[in-house]
UniProtKB/TrEMBL annotation:
Source organism of this protein record: Lihuaxuella thermophila
UniProt cross-references to CDD domains, sorted A to Z: MqsA
Protein name: Uncharacterized protein, YokU family
InterPro entries hit by this protein: CHP03829_YokU (IPR022451), Znf_MqsA-type (IPR022453)
One Pfam family recorded for the sequence: YokU
Origin: domain of life: Bacteria
Listed NCBIfam families: YgiT_finger (TIGR03831)
Length: 87
């Protein structure tokens, strides 16, 4: 795997803490331990694919029971919103 910014092969898997504004815009949350990439030249960053995955999880998950700070794993395991309930 190579760095998407500089193209060097000297990258390592890492974790990063980030802040996100929830889709409804009513609050921001800190998501800890998001899978990230560490490049010797560019520093620590989250890939576009992981950014998209976090965005999708924020849209699809029931977050009302989570505090303002939670881990990526807690987000992945959060109950999903039932948009289409079959009766």
């Amino acid at each position: 795997m190579e760095c998407v910014w500089c193209g060097k092969d000297q990258i390592e898997e890492s974790k990063q803490d980030c802040y996100w504004v929830l889709p409804d815009g009513k609050r921001s949350v800190q998501i800890r331990q998001i899978p990230a990439v560490h490049c010797e030249s560019c520093g620590l960053y989250i890939t576009e694919e992981m950014n998209q995955k976090v965005e999708e999880l924020l849209y699809l998950s029931e977050l009302s029971q989570l505090p303002d700070t939670f881990t990526y794993e807690e987000l992945v395991n959060a109950p999903k919103i039932q948009l289409f309930k079959i009766k």
